[in-house]
Write a structure and sequence with these properties.
Blueprint (H helix, E strand, L loop, with lengths): L8 E3 L5 E3 L3 E2 L5 E2 L7 H12 L7 H15 L11 H7 L7 H11 L3 H23 L9 E7 L7 H10 L4 E5 L6 H8 L5 E5 L2 E5 L3 E6 L8 E8 L2 E9 L4 E3 L2 E3 L1 H15 L6 E6 L10 H4 L3 E2 H5 L17 E6 L2 E7 L10 E6 L7
Parallel strand pairs: 5-6, 11-14
Antiparallel strand pairs: 1-2, 3-4, 5-18, 6-8, 7-8, 9-10, 10-11, 12-13, 14-16, 15-16, 17-18
Helix pairs in contact: 2-4, 2-5, 4-5, 6-7
């Protein structure tokens, strides 16, 4: 006869059977080896899953992924109230500063995995989007040198500003923020180097080559944009000089409505331009990363992005943080682009050297 042993009995030292009584938890559920999971176990598992974000480094990891997605897909971000999307895109190059902050936060939490994520994920996204801007794409060739400068109507040293601009050796020079008091002084100081010029309102153009068809471009109630044809040796070049309205950051958000409206009018003029080669120069009060500038940047190429080295920030001149002064090209190719040394203005001058291909046969 075969003996059987009950699973709830164990042998005592004297060989007699001893009963093992399972212990119970506070909720009356048995705990210990060999038992089936009870309701409290499922609740604990669910709670642990819901509390993953409370683990060390979880918040840092989430922020790292958010930064990376925002940088890599900033063009797909929805239009936010107060034009905050435009503000975020204008400052997007500075998102790299989030990397050391996130890494430090992860290390303080003693979360090495989160620190690695914070170091790698946002950095890869940033380099994918902006890494090309860091490379030196300049070349020594080119046919024509362009310079644009917001000279600041309150400039305390117009003479020094002119000397600095003359040293750049520009073939075509655009000035913004002229005033009735300062425009004649610039006209006189530049007359010897630039026999051809046209200015009206707050903008003007000086050239070593003949100008024709010069006129104001109505983008605001007063003149802040102009257009002229430069008869360059390589062919005609339509040049627009513009100073778009300023933007402000306040409680209502990014107040750029006047700028965007003027930009739309300028873009319409550029679209209707009959000359194949087009240059838009000036203080556009916006970066080329800003979606609001797409009416222009969808058709024209930034000289700095195509042939510069670095971001070429221009404002404020003492510690440049954004590039709001632009040279945009259509039908011509940039050979190099750069910023010039500071003058007494609050903006840095911008320069570009371009290739002029022959006009197509009629």
């Amino acid at each position: 006869m075969t003996a059987t042993t009950r699973p709830d009995l164990a042998s005592a030292p004297d060989g007699t059977a001893a009963q093992t009584i399972p212990s119970t938890g506070a909720d009356g559920t048995a705990v210990g080896p060999g038992r089936a999971p009870g309701p409290s176990d499922h609740a604990a598992d669910a709670g642990s899953r819901l509390r993953w974000w409370r683990r060390p480094g979880a918040a840092v990891t989430g922020c790292s992924v958010l930064v990376a997605v925002s940088v890599a897909g900033h063009g797909l971000l929805p239009r936010l109230p107060g034009r905050l999307s435009s503000l975020a895109e204008t400052l997007m190059p500075w998102s790299a500063l989030a990397v050391p902050v996130l890494v430090a936060a992860a290390l303080l939490r003693r979360a090495p995995v989160a620190a690695a994520v914070a170091l790698v994920v946002p950095a890869v996204a940033w380099l994918t989007v902006f890494g090309g801007a860091l490379a030196d794409k300049t070349s020594p060739s080119g046919d024509l040198t362009l310079v644009s400068h917001n000279v600041n109507q309150a400039n305390p040293d117009p003479g020094g500003t002119v000397r600095s601009l003359l040293a750049a050796g520009a073939d075509v020079l655009a000035l913004e923020e002229l005033s009735p008091a300062t425009a004649p002084a610039y006209e006189q100081a530049l007359a010897e180097a630039y026999p051809y010029h046209f200015y009206q309102g707050t903008v003007g153009l000086w050239s070593v080559h003949p100008l024709r068809d010069a006129r104001a471009v109505p983008i605001m109630p007063w003149t802040r944009a102009m257009r002229a044809t430069v008869d360059a040796p390589g062919g005609r070049l339509a040049v627009y000089v513009a100073h778009l309205p300023s933007v402000r950051v306040g409680p209502a958000g990014f107040t750029a409505g006047a700028r965007d409206e003027a930009l739309g009018l300028l873009a319409a003029e550029v679209r209707a331009e009959p000359v194949r080669r087009v240059v838009v120069m000036g203080d556009l009060n916006g970066s080329t990363d800003d979606r609001a500038l797409r009416p222009l940047t969808d058709r024209l190429v930034s000289a700095q992005a195509a042939a510069g080295a670095g971001f070429g920030f221009t404002w404020p001149a003492r510690l440049p943080a954004v590039r709001i002064d632009q040279i945009l090209l259509g039908g011509v190719r940039a050979a190099s682009a750069w910023t010039l040394p500071a003058t007494a203005s609050d903006h840095l001058p911008v320069a570009a050297r371009i290739h002029l291909s022959p006009d197509p046969a009629p």
